Amino acid sequence: MEENRFFRLIWRINAVVIFIAGLLTVAGLVYGIVFLFQSGSGPHYTEDIVNTETGPGMVEEWHLERFEPVTGTQVVVASLVSDQAYDQDYFDKETYSVRNLLFINTRTNTQTWLMDTSDYLLADYHHLTETDWKQKEKAVGFLYVIVKKDTNTDRRLSNEDLKTISVSRPDGSRHTELVKGVDELLDYTLVDNTTVLISYRKGGDIYTGYISFDTLEFHRESKIRLKKTDTG
Length: 232
Prior knowledge:
Blueprint: H1 2-41, E1 44-47, E2 50-51, E3 58-64, E4 68-69, E5 75-87, E6 92-105, E7 111-113, E8 121-131, E9 137-147, E10 156-157, E11 163-168, E12 176-182, E13 184-190, E14 195-202, E15 205-212, E16 217-223
Parallel strand pairs: 1-6
Antiparallel strand pairs: 2-10, 3-5, 4-5, 5-6, 6-7, 8-9, 9-11, 11-12, 13-14, 14-15, 15-16
């Protein structure tokens, strides 16, 4: 009789344990479903992408970001940014991209847009400076990487497309395109007061060249011959 009571107690304990384990399993499944739903239904945010297709579900907003001083000048510069939002069946998609730059001379209040249009993607830009003999920084100019065309036909402008390398004066004037059809700007360095050495990838090969900020010209382009390891 005592033995039967003992086994009944064991069965009851097992039943309680199984019940609690079941509750924990169900709770875990519910949490996972809710987490996946929230992740899938929340906005998907990406940068440096311009969707070229417009539709009824797309909303595009534009704004200027805060002004930054251009070293050694009386000029400030601000990025013109577009935010594109799309309503999808299961989630919302938002993109952020720099489309142009506004330069303002704070002494004369002269306003200069870098480009005549804001249809492109300004993928990257660099403010180049040099230090004079008084250890004072002076502005040399700006170096830009711009995506102008959807070269891979995926209906958007992004870093996956071919790019154009261009330059301008420190105040944004005389914007000049120098190298087109570039896969990637790899590096750049100031070699003297007005000359910049750049390296870039184009058509699967690596090139170098020099940019003169005196004349805003590109010259001495050279293809790098990579030294491959001798496996023989």
